[in-house]
Amino acid sequence: MPTVNNMLGGTYSLYKSAYNNGTLFKSNTGLLGSNTFGSNNRTQNSIASLWSNYGSFNSNAASALSGLSEIRGNVSSLVESYDSTKATFYGEFDDTMDELSKATANIKDYNFDVRQYDDNGEAIPLITTNQTVGEDGAITETTTRTKELDAAVKAVSDFAKSYNNAINFFANNNDVSKRVGRMQTMFADTTYRKANYEAIGLNIGTDGRITVDEDKLANAIANDPNRVASALGRDGLSGKAESHISTANGQRSQLFPSAQTLIGKDLASASLYTGAGYRNMSSYMNVGNLINMMF
Predict the structure, then answer these.
(1) Closest C-alpha among 14, 39, 34 to residue 24
(2) Does 113 lie in the same domain as 242?
(3) What is the mean pLDDT of the chain?
(4) pTM, to two decimals
(5) Which end of the chain is more exposed for a tag (fewer CB within 10 A), N or C?
(6) What is the pLDDT of residues 164-197, one digit of tens each?
(7) Are 197 and 214 in contact (CB under 8 A)?
């Protein structure tokens, strides 16, 4: 592509050649005004004026380009901030879903029948209560659970914590996009079978968050492990959570809006009028102005 200087140099040569051989001006109303063609000095002044005007055009273009360069810098900073925020969002999303996936897998097929038997085949109590009497006659009760029962309670508590973290993540980011808001609503649907969960010690808030009553849960596991497995297993809460995780991961790429959507059409406009595109536009405009002045 020819440079602006080459184009102007060619125009200047054509101008001189056309003037010298008398083909550029056919009357007294040409570029140099009436009765001026006999004066070489006036010709030189006219050419000097032409280049002076080009200098003014170039200076104005440079000034405009300087302002747009500042816009370009601001847009670059904005895009950089967008990329950083997007990366943070998806990093937290992935961590939250991974944590919940592990906790869900742990209880989906959990065997809540954690009874143990002694050498005589007798079931060892899962929960024992001891009473002690203080010097003042006050009675203190101490409850002890077997390690197997404690492990089952912990598995459910870890799941509830991870599930709450997922609800919190989507709630804290629901203004990012409508899809994120729908994810929050989806994970909050634990209220649908609230009575079943509360019967085994899982209290459900209006926002879907789960609070575990560990004593009530331990008793439910000890007395009716099948009921607990039904409420929390693959056909219960963990199965529901697994479905939610799959849906969220399936929509992962669409949760955070594109830069164009988030920032708006100004991003594209700013990109169009910056850099080489604007410089080329300004250069060819100047050439056009010079040609208009000459002809």
Answers:
(1) 14
(2) yes
(3) 76
(4) 0.66
(5) N
(6) 999 999 999 988 899 999 999 999 988 778 899 9
(7) no
- Per-residue DSSP letter, 30: S
Same domain for 67 and 153, yes or no, is no
- Helix residue ranges, H only, 109-236: 147-172, 178-187, 194-198, 214-223, 225-232
- Tell me if 139 is assigned to some domain: no
DSSP state of 110: -
pLDDT-derived band at 218 (thresholds 50, 70, 90) equals very high
Do 57 and 167 reside in the same domain of the chain? no
Rounded CA separation 197/231 (Å): 6
Which residue, 201, 179, 199, is CA-closest to 255?
A: 179
Measure the CA–CA gap between 29 and 259, rounded to whole angstroms: 57
Which residue range forms the structural domain that includes residue 195?
109-117+146-263
153 and 256 inside one domain: yes
Asked if residue 268 belongs to a domain, the reply is no
- Based on the fold, state whether residues 171 and 251 are members of the same structural domain: yes
- Per-residue model confidence (pLDDT) at position 130: 83
Greater confidence (270 vs 116) lies with: 116
